[in-house]
Write a structure and sequence with these properties.
Length: about 350
Amino acid sequence: MAMKNPNTTVTEFILLGFSQNPKIQSILFFIFLTIYITTWLGNLTVIMTVIYTPHLHTPMYFLLANLALIDISDSTVTALRTLWSLISHTNSISYDWCITQIFFFHFIAGAVDFFLVMMAIDRYIAIYRPLQYLLIMNQSVCIGLVAGAWLGGFAHSIVQITLIAQLPFCGPNILNNFYCDVSQLIKLACTDTYITELLMVSNGGLLLTLMFCILLVSYSVILVKIRTHVTEGKRKALSTCAAQIIVICLNFVPAMFIYDRPFQVFQVDKVASVLYTLITPMLNPMIFTLRNTEMKNTIRKLRDRLGEPDRVPLSEQNVGVGRSKTGCQADVCVNDGEAAPYQFQGLTHHCLKVG
């Protein structure tokens, strides 16, 4: 991490938050605490369901479980500090903690954006190369995609933190937000920040816009392919892609609103920040599970089996390679409009006669 500028005399910053009224702060505390707990429960449910359900050990669900882990981390970076401020009525944050929060915020938020690109790659291969899907999206590739997303977020964060840590801060020290971020902090620097802002916008805003456009084009191509490919899993494939498009919009649109323009302080930025940092991580697991029949059924079965761990449902007995749950023989099965060997697939299967 970059060294602190020697001309910096500010030792702490004051976060204005949402209100200085103790009653309103108490109400906001319970609202944000509910959001944070819901985020944990929803994403943890997705993670545990994928881990403890063998037929969900597929590339798509592996990526989905990792996205849930990132969402928990993303929410924690801002929620914990916000909850502490609301309950303790303490609005100050030290310079070092402020810089640390910025680092982890951009590290994890960047990883989320790169991760959504990786999920789009997974869906593209599943639709356009169904027979080679599991050969291409093997375990090494999946792990590489996850590692690539984290490395991308780390590189993005290192650039942001290096630029901001070089700036001198000598007062004022008031941030009109509920967490530390570069868009607010850079305006307090005691120097001309025009070049620094351009570099930050290029590293953040323009990158977000480019990724967003690539994702929209990718999913448009995928949806065209699905509509022209008549299969029994077509509706489910459309639902899966629609869920991911909703998640993409929830992640990218508020972020682009904040980082795609010259850094200026607007009250509406707080609303966009709440949506981006707290609401979206809570909604992601709901969007994926509510629109995914397989996930809903698996969660329900897992819940019902908690009291009967030794019983094996008949629907999961005598299921092997080349045999669907309906008992028909096949070498290849279709998963959401995809063809792949049965033992790796987690969604409803439709047998295809081969040979």
